[in-house]
UniProtKB/TrEMBL annotation:
This is Glycoside hydrolase family 15 protein. Pfam families: Glyco_hydro_15, TREH_N. GO terms for molecular function: hydrolase activity. Keywords: Hydrolase. Residues 226-597 form the GH15-like domain. SUPFAM superfamilies: Six-hairpin glycosidases. Gene3D superfamilies: 1.50.10.10.
């Protein structure tokens, strides 16, 4: 049986990520980028590669992130002793503060330290590049091993002799109290000189340096002073770990194809930069850590859009972390999928969808960071104006909505509301947009959108704002209306919508995005899905804004309580079993946590009043 999703922890270095489970097995690692073909993919198939350092026999486990870092310390206790295993994706030596993640060495560091008695470990290195398709030539070397051939070079240093197997290397070791044994694995492309991993005797120092690099970044960005400080700080660190530092792109998750339900087909590749997710990440970081990443992201978006914001076609909703436009989706039939949940997909066909919400999310981020961005470059002035002009021109058109439904386009309420946000924020940014500002026209179209939403978005039969114009289906995205400042949560109809979602769009108190029937009638997909952590946090935020902080806090505490022992959340939660589902860790879920914490702390008076615009 596959490892539970909640049993994994994320390592990150500003360029890529790896997942390590409670047994000490690296089961997912993509290098040199988040969206590169996986070197270890046991997460999705038992034969697709891993690197485990696991005690022999029975053992108990506790683990934590070393404070202020994404370095994991796992403590194994056996009948004969206890030992730490520390895992880190290294950053460049000596990096501190905002430099964190620039030009990482693509090196995985692992250290075993004996605490008491003696503990025996099995080391099992099974590299399988290209999602398990490649069984590399592996040659033992003095002090380690190397692979040869194919699109990767991997070199390993080991403090104990390795034995070669079938495209793998193994060892058994014993560690006594006070003893430290360091391992390292470094990746390089085939066209460069063979890489040199860190020597075993230097692994401790390199891990320590990586720890200090993370702590220096957090020390410069620790601004949240509310009661939920620790939770917000951890989630901010996770979001930082999902940032591709070379370009400023922010990925939705470091994984692909972890299913929304076991055996279902709702398995997507989230290792890309969605405008929506990344913009909301910036908003969450604004509360949680006030990052310098805003300018990097704006630069990434303006360059990635490539001048297309004002074209007749919609702005592309997502890009590769290097700004790539074509993210064509394909299946990997050789992989069984997590718990046999096929298909496994790479790429994401949503890149070609029309989603009108992106204009509002991006302009809201520009407005939020207007002071940090300073005087806007003429290129950004033009880009912002083109976003507003396009929202004004296209808001009357149907789209697939922010949930990326693969059915017939509709007039989704959330898309109309976010087009209103685009024009509202453009009007507020107008003094900074120079000759590109069209304040009067934007304000007039903004008011037309508002009137249409209030009239056609309300269902008298349902007594709620609904999923699409002239429909009766509930959708958690209606909660964005107060969060973006479209309506106050205390408005009679808005509050009725909040209560309708709380009562009718929940399972065991947690919120669904929308109801699905199991066939393709709603969103073009088969099967059902679980409750969304993000949507549950949205409900907590709106309850706080509606003057019910006690209800909000109870819901917040319950959702946050489903995080794993490292504090990580996936996309979805099964409230009955407590299991996490979907890609992991999920930026959206940690975004929701930060913003809900801020809303609740504001409601209790523990933080200054929020910006009048609201923030999701």
């Amino acid at each position: 049986m596959s490892t539970r999703i909640a049993d994994y922890g994320m390592l990150a270095d500003g360029s890529s990520a790896a997942l390590v489970d409670r047994r000490g097995s690296i089961d997912w690692m993509c290098v040199p980028r988040f969206d590169s073909p996986a070197l270890f993919a046991r997460l999705l198939d038992p034969d697709a590669g891993h690197w485990s350092i696991t005690p022999t026999g029975r053992f108990d486990v506790t683990r934590r992130y070393l404070p202020g870092t994404l370095v994991i310390e796992t403590t194994f206790t056996t009948a004969t002793g206890a030992a730490h295993l520390r895992d880190a994706l290294a950053v460049s030596e000596g990096q501190r503060g905002h430099e964190l993640g620039m030009s990482p060495p693509h090196e995985l560091l692992r250290e075993v330290e004996g605490l008491r008695g003696e503990v025996e470990f099995d080391v099992d290195l099974v590299p399988r590049p290209e999602y398990g398709l490649v069984r590399p030539l592996l040659r033992l070397t003095d002090g380690g091993a190397r692979t040869f051939g194919g699109p990767n070079q991997i070199a390993v240093r080991s403090p104990v002799p390795l034995e070669a197997g079938d495209a793998c290397a193994r060892a058994r070791l014993r560690v006594a109290a006070g003893q430290r044994l360091g391992f390292s694995l470094v990746w390089a492309p085939p066209e460069v000189a063979p890489p040199e991993p860190t020597a075993p005797e230097r692994v401790t120092a390199r891990i320590t340096d990586t720890v200090e690099a993370w702590r220096s970044w957090e020390g410069e960005h620790d601004i949240y002073q509310g009661p939920h400080h620790d939770l917000v700080l951890l989630s901010s660190r996770v979001l930082k770990g999902l940032t591709y530092r070379p370009t400023g792109a922010i990925v939705a998750s470091p994984t692909t194809s972890l299913p929304e339900t076991v055996g279902g087909e709702r398995n997507w590749d989230y290792r890309y930069a969605w405008i929506r997710d990344a913009s909301l990440t910036l908003e969450a970081l604004y509360h949680g850590s006030c990052p310098d990443e805003a300018a990097d992201f704006v630069s990434f978006m303006t360059s990635s859009a490539g001048g297309s914001a004002g074209a007749d076609s919609s702005l592309q909703i997502m890009y590769g972390v290097g700004g790539e436009h074509d993210l064509s989706e394909r299946e990997l039939p050789h992989l069984r999928g997590w718990l046999d949940s096929r298909p496994v997909r790479v790429g994401n066909a949503a890149w070609a969808q029309t989603q009108l919400d992106v204009y509002g999310e991006l302009l809201n981020a520009l407005h939020l960071y207007r002071e940090r961005l300073g005087e806007l470059h003429p290129e950004i002035q033009r880009f912002a104006a083109e976003l507003a002009d396009t929202a004004a021109r296209r808001w009357t058109k149907p789209d697939v909505g922010m949930w990326e439904m693969r059915g017939t386009p509709r007039h989704h309420l959330s898309s109309k509301v976010l087009c209103w946000v685009a024009l509202d924020r453009a009007v507020k940014l107008a003094p900074r947009l120079g000759r590109h500002a069209r304040t009067g026209a934007w304000a007039a179209e903004r008011d037309r959108i508002r009137a249409a939403v209030l009239e056609r978005g309300w269902s008298e039969r349902r007594r709620a704002y609904t999923q699409a114009f002239d429909s009766d289906e509930l959708d958690a995205a209606a909660l964005l209306m107060p969060l973006y400042g479209f309506l106050p949560a205390t408005d009679e109809r808005m509050y009725a919508t909040i209560e309708a979602i709380a009562q009718e769009l929940t399972e065991d108190g947690l919120v669904l995005r929308y109801r699905v029937t199991g066939d393709r009638s709603i969103d073009g997909l088969m099967g059902k899905e679980g409750t969304f952590a993000l949507c549950s946090f949205w409900l907590a935020s709106t309850l706080a804004q509606a003057g019910q902080p006690d209800r909000a806090k109870a819901l917040f505490d319950r959702v946050a309580g489903f995080a794993n022992d490292l504090g990580l959340l996936a996309e979805e939660i099964d409230p009955r079993s407590g299991e996490l589902f979907g890609n992991f860790p999920q930026a959206f879920s940690h975004i929701g946590l930060i913003n809900a914490a801020a809303a609740i702390d504001h409601a209790y008076g523990a933080l200054p009043p929020p910006d009048a615009d609201g923030s999701p």
